[in-house]
Design brief:
By secondary structure, this protein is an alpha+beta fold. The chain contains three helices and four strands, in the order βαβαββα. β3 (57-60) and β4 (63-66) form a beta hairpin.
C-alpha cells in the first residue's frame, strides 16, 4: 500500500495538535509538521485550504481535516 502524504498545521500551545502528532507517532505514520505560529506564509496557506484559523488542520493526501478527528483520520489512513 502506498504511503499517504500527511501534513499537520500546528502551534506550540495547541493540546489537540500534540494529541494528533502523538497519534501519528504511535501509529508509525510519517508526517510533515508546519508551525503556523512561527510562519505567517504557512498560516495564510492553512487559512486558504481550510477556511479558518483554528489548529490543527490535517491534510491527508488532498483531504482536509479540521481538528483532531481520530475516526476520520483512521479511515483515511486505513487504520482500524
Amino acid at each position: 500500500m502506498a504511503t499517504k502524504k500527511v501534513k499537520i498545521y500546528t502551534t506550540d500551545y495547541c493540546v489537540y495538535c500534540r494529541a494528533a502528532k502523538d497519534f501519528f507517532v504511535k501509529n508509525k505514520i510519517p508526517f510533515e509538521e508546519i508551525n503556523v505560529g512561527e510562519d505567517e506564509e504557512a498560516l495564510n496557506e492553512m487559512v486558504t485550504i481550510s477556511g479558518q484559523m483554528g489548529v490543527p488542520v490535517i491534510v491527508i493526501d488532498n483531504e482536509v481535516i479540521i481538528g483532531f478527528n481520530e475516526p476520520k483520520i483512521r479511515k483515511l489512513l486505513g487504520l482500524k
